[in-house]
Amino acid sequence: MPYNTVCGNSSAVCGWSELLDANVIGAAFTMYDHAFIGMAVFLLFIVYQFMLWVKTQNLTLCWVTGIFFVALFLTSQVIGTVIRPLATQMIFVILAFELAGIFFLWIWK
Questions:
Q1: How far apart are CA 65 and CA 44, in angstroms?
Q2: DSSP type of residue 97
Q3: Confidence class of residue 89 from pLDDT cuts 50, 70 and 90?
Q4: Which of 8, 13, 51, 105 is packed most tightly, with the most Cβ within 10 A?
Q5: Would you list the domain boundaries of the chain?
Q6: Taking 90 as the threshold, does the pLDDT of residue 65 lie above it?
Q7: Residue 10: pLDDT band with limits 50, 70, 90
Q8: Local structure of residue 48 (DSSP, 8 states)
Q9: What angle is formed at CA 52 by the lines to CA 70 and CA 40, rounded to 5 degrees?
Q10: Which residues fall within 8 angstroms of residue 17, CB to CB, at 6 or more apart?
């Protein structure tokens, strides 16, 4: 694969065409998404969930805000790129485990 098409566009730098179109958020996302092999959103989700759990110790809050996170990102048109299907599946698996934990605590406590 030639160097100039490594990001899926004709520019030699990831996010450069978005930056020239005055889309700063899209340019930053393209750069980070390419650096993390398309898993930038999944990594942000993991860090976000971990920090929320450490601070609140509330599984229900983690699940509800995780649903908001996924819904906002999957319906967002700001970034203009598609999240990898594997990352989406892994996010939903984490949310399913959180929901199972909520039901476990609800029934047995």
A1: 13
A2: H
A3: confident
A4: 13
A5: 1-35, 37-109
A6: yes
A7: low
A8: H
A9: 45
A10: 9, 10, 11
pLDDT at 5 over 60: no
CA atoms of 33 and 8, how far apart (whole Å):
12
H-helix segments, the chain: 16-20, 24-35, 40-56, 59-75, 85-108
Give me the residue label for tokens 């989406």: 88
Residues 46 and 39: their CA atoms lie apart, in Å, by: 11
- Integer Cα distance of 6 and 105 in angstroms: 47
- Distances in Å between the Cα of 77 and the Cα atoms of 23, 26, 32, 106 are 12, 10, 18, 37
| Cα–Cα dist 106/109, whole Å | 6
Residue 29 and residue 31: Cα distance in Å, rounded? 5
Q: How much is the CA Rg of the chain, to the nearest whole Å?
A: 17
Token pair for 24: 């700063």
